Task: structure prediction
Amino acid sequence: TSQTKNNIFIGTYRMKINFPEKEGFYALEMPQVYSAYELYINDKLYLKVGDTHNYKAQIQNRCTFFNASGETYITIAVKDASGIKAGITSPPTLGKPYSINITRAFKFLINNFIMTLIFFGALFSLILALSGKSNYSYMFFFMCLTYAVYLNHPLINLCFSMGGNFSYVFEYFCTYFVYLMVIMLQNRLCNLNKNVSSISEICGSVFCAIAFVYGIFTPYLSAPLCTFLSTLCNVFEWLAAIYLVAIGTYAVFNDIKYGRIFLFGNVCFAVSLLLYIIQPLYDSIYTDQSVEIGILTILGCLYFVYWASIIDNYRRNIVLDDERRLMERQINLYKE
Result:
């Protein structure tokens, strides 16, 4: 059941589970629930994150352990006043404690591994930027760093609780800032028309500012205005996806080096947005991850093109140095 009034969402989730008659020990992993909740098992309070009575938003990935047998009721009471996300966005995971802990550990390691790779990519980009060996290193550095911090968000929630408003602002701004950096990088790598590039980058900057303001002031905005801003941000995502696919198509038809790689990454990103809309109708478990996977794909493609371009420039410089030395040798021979 749910009730929404003045941007305040109050919801109750109730599940009936038939366990074996022999009592067993189980674990229930609760994903990030927005923004405060209480978990009851057979009307006994097992878990509390935030405060649903004197509203206090708190977001954290938690796990609880309990004994159960036969018919068991799990009740989750949720309250949210953010206006952005409300209630359970990903289903809880129920199983044996060993299996749940192994799954949580794998999630932690995989996220940590990907985040470390992106972070080192950002670090190398910063070194190249400071040495002046690449024109786009600063953009690639900020893009990688922002997304590495964004991926670190679930890891933080796994270990610590976060205030609701900060979490929303953080997620929204990081996502749209990465979109902006991707657009700026591809504009330059594909040598697009300056007017087209400027318009797309100005629009991206405006939407980044809108997302930031939306995240901060959402609790104080009216429901229609929140809906309008949310729709506006979703429209920007689709416009960004269409624009990036157009860039990839342009690169392929104009025989720009690595054009097919651009097109592949951009199409994957567009498909991830489509899955984000369609997938909840069939499976809500991986919905939140579809856009993350799409961004990772496009980031991986840009990562490959970025380093391939640096290697190409390095080879070109070696060839030019060899030609220069050969020319100097011929000039010296001619003087002699």
